[in-house]
Every structure is written in C-alpha cells, then in structure tokens.
Design brief:
By secondary structure, this protein is of the alpha/beta class. Helix content is 52%, strand content 12%. The chain has 23 helices and 15 strands.
C-alpha cells in the first residue's frame, strides 16, 4: 500500500495499543495485550476514514461490554500531531477515526516524491511469474479472441510488475502437431491449384480454407515456380511449411508490436519435441504408474489422478462420478505425441527447467475443461498444481449501431486483430478490453471506441490529463510561477471535493496490489475512470485560479498530483497521455 496509507494504519494500531495500556494502568481495562483487530475503510465515510473492531474482539476476554472497552480506549487516546484529528465510537463499539490535514498533505508530498514510481510496490518481493497469453496457432491471422487476450494478458503482466513481481511475458508458438500437418496439406493443395486450376485437386473440408493460405502458396510459387509439383509430397509439404510458417510468425510479432505488446519469449513447441522434453515427461508419468497402453496408443490415467485430487479437495465419489472423467491419449497409435503431452512438457519446462515460481495462462473459455486436466497433470509429475493459474476469457461480440458485426468490410471475412487495430485507436482497444472482467462475455462497441466524448472511458481519462496540462499552461502564460508547496500550504485543501480526490489518489498502490492478487487489471481501469470523475468534480467546485496565492498553489499541486498519477496508470497500461485534445 501507499507509504502514507500504511503509516496511517500503523499509527492507528499503535495508538490504540498505547491507549489500551494507559486505560489498564488506570484500572479501566484488564491488563494484557489486546487481541488482533482489523483496520478497515467504512463503506459510509460518515463513519470515518478508518474503523476498528478492537472493542468487539476483546470484549469477551475482558468480560466487559464492547462499548465500555471502546470508551476506555478512546478516553486515553491522543490526537495531537497524528494523522487522525478525531475519534468517535459508533454502534456497539466500533471506533472510527477521522483523518486530518496532515494526512492529506503527506499523500500529495509522497506522490511528488515518488514521481513516475508512484503506484509501484515491493508486495510481490520478486516472486517470478510467467504470463503466457494469446499463443494463437501460427497457421493463419489472429482473431478477436486474441485481441482481448492480448490486452488482458499484457495489462495483467504490467499490474504484476508494478506490484513487485518479476514478470516474463510469453507467447507459445504451436509449430508442431496436427495443426501444422493440416497447414502443410492446405498449402500443398493451394500450391497445386495455383498451377493446375481450382478443380484439379480438392481441398478437404477440415482443411484451412482462408485466403491467407492462397496468398502463402502463391508467394511460394513466385519464388520456386512449379519446381515442387513433381517432388515427393512429404518434401513438398516440408518446404511449404518452412517457407510459410516464419512469415506467419513474423506477421504475428508485427501485429503484437503494433498492439504495443513485446514478449520476453516466443517459445517454440517444436523445441519440446527436438529436445526430448516430451519423452522425459512421458517417462516420468510412466515411472509413477500413471500410463497404460491400449489400442496401440499410450494413455494417461486422468481419471485416477483427477479423482484423487478432487477427493483431497473434499469431493465425494458420487460427485466425482457425475463429472464423467476420461483418460487422455499421450502417444497416438502412429507414434506421434498429442497436444496434451506437449502441453504437460511445456509447463514442466516453465517450472523445472526455467524455474518460474508461478505461471499464469490466459485461455479462451472453450478451454475450461482443460484446466483441471492440466493441474492434475502437474501433480502427476510432482509439481504443486497451485503454482499454475488459469485466467479463462469469454468471447467478444463486436457491436456497431447496436448490432453484432461479423464480417470485415475490407476482406469479407471474419474481422481479425489487424482489421481492428486499423480501424480503432490502439489506446481505446487496450483500455476497453480491460473494462470488463475476463470471465464476462464482452460487447465491444466500435462506435464508442472512436467517439471523442466523455462516454468513451479512455477519452474521458485522457481528457482529464489534457485538461490539467491546459490549466498549467494557462497559469504559466499569465506569468504565474508554479511553486513547490510545503505541508502547511497543502493543509489548505479542506474542501470535500479536494479530500475525496486525494483519498482516491492514495488508493492507487492498494488497487494495483489487489488487481495483481486477483489477476484482474479491470480494477486499474476503474481507478482511472474514477480519478477522472473526481477530478472533474473538483474542477467544477473549486476554482484553481484564485487570488489567494497559497490556496492557488496548493490546488495547482493537487492538479499536478492527479496529472502524474493518471499518467502513471495510463503508462502502465501502455496508453498515451496527450497534453492537448
């Protein structure tokens, strides 16, 4: 939490303990240490800025009424030179604290001192996180689910970083397995059709029919002509994949960079095959008794592993039976490993080979059935499954004029990530995709995303920043020097709108930590929109340019604190903070 917020809470705890000790010396309370109590922010601010339950949790052991305990404590409490200026008893014995001017001025001074680092903390203490997101198949263009996953994953990684974790962003390239075989077949057919005509060779129904496959086949033909038509099918398909796959991966990297996403690692699935890591994980599972052979394939005892794991979690055999668990194939009868086998090896690589403390995967909601299987597989190979967390992301509906948009005007096909980024400002895409929790189906309003009004949340936040920049420019144009404010001057900020705004500023560090703990960057975008709302409320109620020099400088300092805090939040989300709009 913010240093000042933390100091204020610690001060309350210490002063309550001192007051209880004084009350005990005076014979008003029994002697002995107070039992632990909580310091909370009341939902209704009329009940103070902080409230404690010390009287209630100690009343039974003290054999006194809670209110009598509260009276003994408050009657021996000092408020001079403290962050709180008054203390009151409410209800059955809650003790409520009301913060004074010193608290608010110290918050602003702390924001100024922290500068670009305001909001950061060491909460995570360097625990290493691998955040894997998007990880689209490199067999075609990225779609709308990848657009949402990119914004969620990248902003989640940023939140974790600001909360003090050591974060690595990762893209898992599925460059092996069935989808690559299908990719090779599709390219092969399109290559042959390029020279022999569309009816010469039929493209199977379950192949890739996208226009991008035709483009790649045509590019290959332009380089190699028809020289591969008479070559062996295996050789031809290998050459087509080796030509097309790097181009697709380069396009993915370009799209991600345009989206302001830079990965620390592009991890190739093929390395798991070539490096023997899949074979290693198969051996571990076999040695532990979790595999068996059937119909020429090697199977994983998913039913046994998940059943045991669910029983440890308190599930009954009847409840487990209703789940209709099934075993999984690891090695097909043709000798090829399944995607599941590769996925187990991939996650083992994260934990055992590269040593990450935690791994977060951002998956589409259609993978929900894979979550328990993967966690169970981690336990089966000796890795604590609590080290793996999955964020499941629901679908996106593109909306225009209140209707669902399904086709791209440019291509006549489904709208891709590139289509979206060509049409909508990237600031809006990144912000709006983080306005709803990952588990909620999202309607993405294309009209709202380009609207330059307060209805557009990202524009609303950026406008608050630009408005403050305009205030500062106008003051300087009038020849007024903006001065550093001391605590005494900042103590002049006593209006309800000023204090409400400062209280919100003080919550940023806690908001980021809460977002990191819950894997929910939505809390940060909500902080930003609320900050913009409170600033506009302050601006409309409290004139900045006033004749009272000291008050004017204090309000300018508040404006600067809001500007810098908004800039920190938007920078964390990789969103621009324009100075003019």
């Amino acid at each position: 939490m913010s240093k000042i917020v933390n100091n204020a809470k610690l001060e309350i705890i210490n002063e309550v303990k001192k007051a209880a000790a004084k009350a005990a010396q005076a014979g008003l309370l029994p002697t002995g240490e107070l039992a632990d109590f909580t310091v909370e922010v009341p939902k209704d601010r009329s009940f103070g800025d902080y409230s404690i339950n010390a009287a209630m949790v100690n009343a039974k052991t003290m054999r006194m009424a809670p209110r009598a305990v509260a009276q003994a404590i408050t009657g021996n409490m000092e408020t001079e030179n403290k962050y709180f200026e008054r203390v009151e008893i409410a209800g059955p014995g809650f003790i409520n604290f009301y913060l004074g001017s010193r608290y608010y001025s110290d918050i602003l001074l702390d924001i100024k001192q922290q500068g670009d680092g305001y909001g950061r903390s060491d909460y995570g203490k360097g625990t290493s996180f691998n955040v894997e997101f998007v990880s689209a198949n490199p067999t075609g263009p990225m779609h709308m689910g990848n657009a949402r996953g990119g914004a969620l994953g990248d902003c989640l990684a940023a939140v974790l970083d600001y909360a003090g974790y050591d974060v690595s962003r990762e893209f898992y390239v599925n460059d092996a397995g069935n989808q690559i075989d299908k990719f090779a077949l599709s390219l092969d057919i399109r290559y042959q059709q390029h020279f022999l005509g569309g009816n010469a060779v039929e493209l199977p129904e379950d192949s890739y029919h996208g226009e991008d496959i035709k483009v790649r086949a045509a590019e290959f033909a332009e380089v190699y002509g028809d020289s591969y038509l008479n070559k062996d099918e295996k050789e031809r398909r290998k050459a087509l994949v080796e030509f097309a796959l790097p181009k697709n991966i380069d396009n993915m990297k370009a799209a991600m960079e345009k989206y302001r996403i830079v990965y620390d690692t592009w991890f190739s699935e093929m390395t798991l095959h070539k490096g023997g890591e899949i074979a290693d994980v198969i051996k571990i599972l076999t040695d532990r008794g979790f595999t068996y052979e059937k119909d020429g394939a090697l199977w994983y005892k998913n039913t046994v592993v998940l059943g045991d794991m669910l029983r440890r979690q308190g599930k009954t055999d009847e409840e487990i039976e209703k789940l209709e668990l099934k075993d999984e194939v690891l090695i097909r009868s043709n000798g090829n490993p399944t995607y599941f086998a590769a996925d187990i090896a991939y996650h083992r690589n994260k934990f055992e080979t590269r040593g990450f403390d935690k791994a977060i995967d951002v998956w589409g909601a259609d993978h929900h059935g894979h979550v328990a299987r993967m966690k169970g597989a981690m336990e089966a190979i000796g890795i604590d499954s609590s080290r793996l967390d999955i964020v499941l992301m629901q679908l996106v509906n593109l909306m225009r004029d209140g209707n669902v948009v399904r086709m791209s005007k440019r291509t006549g096909k489904a709208i891709t990530l590139t289509d979206l980024l060509d049409e909508i400002p990237i600031d809006a895409v990144r912000f709006l995709f983080n306005m709803r929790e990952a588990g909620s189906v999202m309607d993405f309003d294309l009209d709202l995303a380009v609207e330059q009004t307060a209805k557009n949340p990202v524009y609303y936040c950026q406008y608050a920043h630009a408005r403050i920049c305009s205030i500062l420019r106008n003051v300087k144009d009038e020849g007024i020097e903006i001065k550093d404010c001391c605590a005494e001057a900042l103590n002049r900020l006593t209006c309800p709108e000023e204090r409400e705004l400062i209280r919100h500023l003080s919550s940023l560090t806690d908001v980021i930590i809460s977002a990191a703990k819950s894997y929910d960057p939505v809390k940060v975008t909500h902080f930003a929109t609320e900050l913009a709302t409170l600033f506009h409320k302050f601006y409309n109620s409290c004139h900045v340019r006033v004749d009272d020099e000291e008050l004017m400088q204090a309000r300018l300092a508040l404006c600067i604190a809001v500007k810098n805090t908004m800039q920190n939040v938007l920078r964390m989300l990789k969103i621009e903070s324009p100075e003019r709009m």
